[in-house]
Amino acid sequence: MTFAALPDKLRSALAEREYTKPTDVQAAVLEQEALGRDLVVSAQTGSGKTVAFGLAMAGELLDDAGELQRASSPLALVIAPTRELALQVSRELGWLYSATGARVATCVGGMNPSAERKVLRSGATIVVGTPGRLRDHLERGALDLSALKGIVLDEADEMLDMGFRDELEAILEASPDQRRTLMFSATMPRQIEAMAKRYQRDALRIATVDKGRSHEDISYQAVTVSPPEVENAVVNLLRFHEAETAILFCATRDAVRRLHATLQERGFSVVALSGEHSQQERNQALQALRDQRARVCVATDVAARGIDLPSLSLVVHVEIPRDAEALQHRSGRTGRAGKKGTAVLIVPFPRRKRVESMLRRASIKAQWMEAPDRDAIMTKDRERLLEKLMEPVEVTDADRELADRLMTQKTPAELAAMLVHAHRSKMPAPEDLMPNTPEARREAQKERHRPGFEDTVWFRMDIGRKQNADPRWIMPLICRRGHVTRNEIGAIRIGPDETYFQIPRPIADKFADAARRTAGTDGDEESINFEASKDGPRVAARENRKGRSDQGYKPRGPGGPGGAKAHSSRKPHGKPSGDWGGKPAGKYAGKSSGSSSRDTMSDPFGDSSGRPSGKPAGRPEGRSEGKPFKKKPGGKFGGGKTNGKDRGKPGSHKKFGKPKPPSN
C-alpha cells in the first residue's frame, strides 16, 4: 500500500519527511473498512502511530478537495498521558498539516494556562493535551468541544494506569455524540475494553503488535558487573558505543541527579530529565539533544513515553526496569521507524536471575556479555579515528600552508601520533573495572554491612512465619527484652519456625544477660526463648532445604504438593518488604516499618532476589492464611486471639497497634 489516496498536501508533507511507504499501523488505518469508523488500535512503540492517527483524522479535518474545513472551535482533540508525549504529538501533527493551514494548540501542565486559553480562543483546529489540563480548560469554558469531529486517546492504557479515568470520562462525556473516537494502546486490558464499549460505536479492532517483530530493530545486551561498579560500567559503555545520542534510565530522581553530576565531571555533554524539572527545563534538555549540543540524557521513566529523537541509537538501563513492560517502553526510544538501535541492561551479579526471568516474559533474547574494558575501548577508538581520517574533506590553501609548515618541523610519524593524542584528549578516559571472575562474583554477593555491624553475633528466637512473626512487634520486643535501641539491632531474618537477628559483638554478652533477666516479665513472652546462635540463618536455611529433600519435597506446581490444585483457595503470600524477608501471611501481615538503611543481605529463606522461596518448610497443608492461631501444647506462644486480656502479648492490638491488612 502507498499514500496515493491521500490529499496532495498531506502527500507532499510526507514526502518532505522521506515517508515513502506506510508502516503497518499507518496502512491499517487507511484501509477502506477503517475509514470513518471508530478504531481500537494496538500498536507497538516506534511504529509510526502518531502519523497514523494524524492520517486517520484527515477525513474529519479536510473536505473532498483536500482543503481545511472551517470552524470556530477545534475539530480534533488528541489526549496523551505525559507532557513530553503531548508535545511530541503536537510537533508531528504540526508538520503533517502545515500545508493545509491547520493550527495546532498544545495544552499541558507546567505551561502558561493563560497563553493556552488565548490560543484556543484564536481558533485552533487540532488540540493536543494532557487529561488534567484539558479538563481544567473545559471546566473554565476555554475549551469548546461543540464542533469536535474526532478524538484520539493516545497510550490509553498508560492514562488509565496513571489514574486519569475521571478526566477522560469527563472529556468524552462533554464531546458530541457523533464524534469519531480512536483509541491507541500498546496493550488491551479490561479497562480499555470497557471504555471502548461505553464510548465507541461499532469500533474496528486493529492489532499490529507482533512480539516476534517488535524487537527486530533493537539489539539487546545484558552486561554483568559488580554492584559498586555500575557507574564505571556506564562510562565505559558510553565510550565504547560513542552513540550520536544516548539515553540512560534510572529508577529515581536522586539517581538521575547523582549520575548526571558524575558524567558531567567526567566530561560528557549530558542533560537530565526527571519529574523534579520544570516543563521549560525539560523542553530545553530535549532541544539540546536534538541540536546535538548534548549527546547523553539521564532520565527517569517519565521519559520512557513520548521522546522521539531520530539520532537516538543507544538506551542504557542503568537501574533494572520494574517489569517487562517498562523494559520495552524504555528500550522503544531507539530502533524506531526502521532504524537500528541498541539497548543495554546493566545487571549487578546478584540480580541476574531476575533479569533473565524478565527477558523471558518479554520474549527478548539478549546477548550476555561483560562490560567493555579499557583495551576494548581503545581498539574501538582507533577504528573510529581511522574511519574519520579516511573521510573526504575540503582542504583550503590556508590548510595546505599549515600542513607544509608542520611537515618541516615534525616527521610524519610524529604528526600522526600528535593527531591521535589530540583526538583522544577530547574524550573522557575509560574506567578500570573489576574482572568478571567467579571470585569477584562471590565477593560482590557477600553481605554488605552498615557501619558498626562488621562483627556481629546472631541470636535466635523460637518463633517464625508459622506463628505470624512480624517485624513490627519483633523489633520492640528485642529492644525491651535486651535493653538495646533499634539502632543497635542489625539484620533480622524471619524463617518458618525461628527468627534470627544480629547484635554487635561488643554488646552481645550484655544483651544475652538482659534477655535472660527479662524472660517472663511481660505476659506470655516467657515462652519466647532468646539464645545466641553459632551458625546463624544461612545454615538453618540449608538444613530446612535438606529436610525437604529428604522427605521427597517437590517444587510447587500444578498437581504437585503445595501446587495450584492443593491450594486453590489459599490466599497468596505478600511480597517481601525491605530487608525483612517475606511478609508473614495471615492476620498480622502488613508492610515492614524497618529502615531502608539496613544491610542488604539476601534473605536466606528466599532466593537471591529477596522474594520468598515458596511454601515454608513444614507448613501444614490446607491451613487457612487468615485464621487466628491458637496456643500450642507446652505453652509456646502461637499468636493467640487478640482481646483486652491479651495486653503485653506480641500479637496484642492494644499494646502494639492493630496492623493494617496487606495491600493487594
Q: What tags apply to this protein structure?
A:
single chain, 664 residues, alpha/beta, 7-stranded parallel sheet, 23 helices, 13% strand, flat, disordered C terminus
Query: Largest sheet, described in full?
Result: 7 strands, parallel
Share in helix: 25-40%
Query: Which range does the strand content fall in?
Result: 5-15%
Instruction: Provide a count of the helices.
Output: 23
Mean pLDDT: 77
Using the alpha-carbon principal axes, give the shape: flat
Provide the low-confidence segments as ranges: 548-664
Radius of gyration: 31 Å
Structural class: alpha/beta
Total strands = 18
Task: Kindly report the spatial arrangement of strands forming the biggest sheet.
Answer: 3-4-2-5-6-1-7
Note the gap between the termini: 48 Å
Characterise the protein shown here:
The structure is a single chain. By secondary structure, the protein is an alpha/beta fold. It has 23 helices and 18 strands. The strands form three sheets. It has a seven-stranded parallel beta sheet with strand order 3-4-2-5-6-1-7, sandwiched between helices. Helix 13 links the parallel strand 10 and strand 11 (296-299). Helix 7 packs across helix 9 (165-174). The two termini are 48 Å apart. Residues 548-664 have low confidence and may be disordered.
Task: Summarize this entry quickly.
This protein has 664 residues and is of the alpha/beta class.
List the helices and strands and how they pair.
Blueprint: H1 8-16, H2 24-29, E1 39-42, H3 49-56, H4 58-61, E2 76-79, H5 83-96, E3 104-107, H6 113-121, E4 126-129, H7 131-139, E5 150-154, H8 156-161, H9 165-174, E6 180-185, H10 190-199, E7 204-207, E8 218-225, H11 230-241, E9 245-249, H12 253-266, E10 270-273, H13 279-290, E11 296-299, E12 312-317, H14 324-331, E13 341-348, H15 352-361, E14 367-370, H16 374-390, H17 397-409, H18 412-425, H19 438-444, E15 456-461, H20 471-482, E16 492-494, E17 499-504, H21 508-517, E18 530-533, H22 536-550, H23 653-656
Parallel strand pairs: 1-6, 1-7, 2-4, 2-5, 3-4, 5-6, 8-13, 8-14, 9-11, 9-12, 10-11, 12-13
Antiparallel strand pairs: 15-17, 15-18, 16-17
